[in-house]
Amino acid sequence: MKTEIIKFEGNENDKKYLDKIKKTFENGGLVVFPTETVYGLGGNGLDAKACKKIYEAKGRPSDNPLILHIAENSQLDELVEEVPEVAKKCMEKFWPGPLTMIFKRSKLIPDAVTGGLDTVAVREPSHELANKILKATHLPIAAPSANISGRPSPTKTQHVIHDLDGRVDIIVDGGKSVVGIESTVLDVTVDPPMVLRPGKVTLEDLQKISPDITIDQSTIDSTNKKVPKSPGQKYKHYAPKAEAICFGGNIDKMVLEIQKNIDKNIDKKVAVLASTETIDRYKNADLKIDLGSRQHLEEVARNLFDSLRRCDEENVDLIFAEGYEPIGLGLSIMNRLLKACSGRIVMRI
Ligand code: TXA
Ligand code: MG
Q: Nearest C-alpha to atom 24 of ligand 1 is from which residue?
């Protein structure tokens, strides 16, 4: 299939582009569009065939459910059985934005979206162009992250082109994603509600709405291990080609430990994912990537997936990544890093 790449220009052509995207969705086609978190691989969420195509394009197992994307709160009602009070409060505070909520699904939703579950994930992105596209189609758009399954989520058009050129009808070029990691997923079908995937909207943010909100411990449990964990099947995610190891604990000890590992692997091509505060302290690494300041974890989140892809482009053998304190956005960053590292973490307290 020939993939068309569309860039909105802020002129009269934009209407033409919107019409084309709308028609593509209506005809069961696939359109990659930017959101504030990561790029999404979209298809008509009410069309089982279109959803099947999404799984094929991504190479994703079809029992891993998709998120429906909507433009306005009013679209939610027909997609779900009920909207619990806590969800209403979260919508008010965080929609549109990087929060996905899991609801009891309505009869309208095909099994292809939910992988046969009786629940459905819905989110309302805040990205201006995403919102325009979703408004124009008036359909709930099923969209997983627009990467080949198992690869880091795409935060730039080049990432999408690399993974999906020839596999989708249209790719909308929307520049760099502002948040850089996928949305927070909150299950509001359970009491108390539970965070299944941490994101930009943090557990602490959510607990301000309802203090009893919890988090699925499996999203963070690797951070408790004091020895490197052996790779586990369930961590096959965000995986760069190189072997990656994350280091945590006291910053000075962490820097020393990483340097020791660089020195031990002088015969290999080594990359370090560091912070602005520490990057100059590393010597002899083949590639040093500054993810941003520890004082501004939004920068680190924004640059994380791009840095993993850069390591692939540069064909590095080993990636040593600095860890972050697992609170607030730091927890969401650690969740992604640990998956990229297949759970391998070295702590020096
Ligand atoms: O930021 C995002 O959420 C991006 C952009 C494109 O919106 N999308 C995204 O989709 O990350 P995806 O498919 O890569 O991740 C969706 C996550 C998966 O971990 C999936 O298992 C979970 O949400 N999920 C979806 N529906 C669910 C359900 N009914 N119950 C539990 N988990 C669900
Ligand atoms: Mg994904």
A: 65
- Nearest in space to 6 (alpha carbons), one of 66, 19, 45: 19
Whether the model pTM is above 0.85: yes
Domains, the chain, ranges and CATH? 4-220 (3.90.870.10), 243-348 (3.40.50.11030)
Q: What per-residue confidence (pLDDT) applies to 232? A: 32
Can you tell me the mean pLDDT for 114-135? 96
Single-letter residue type at 97: G
- pLDDT tens for residues 218-268? 887 754 443 433 323 344 577 788 999 999 999 999 999 999 999 999 999
Please report the pLDDT score of residue 228 as a whole number: 34
Q: Which of 63, 80, 100, 172 to mutate to test the pocket of ligand 1 (most atoms within 8 A of CB)?
A: 100
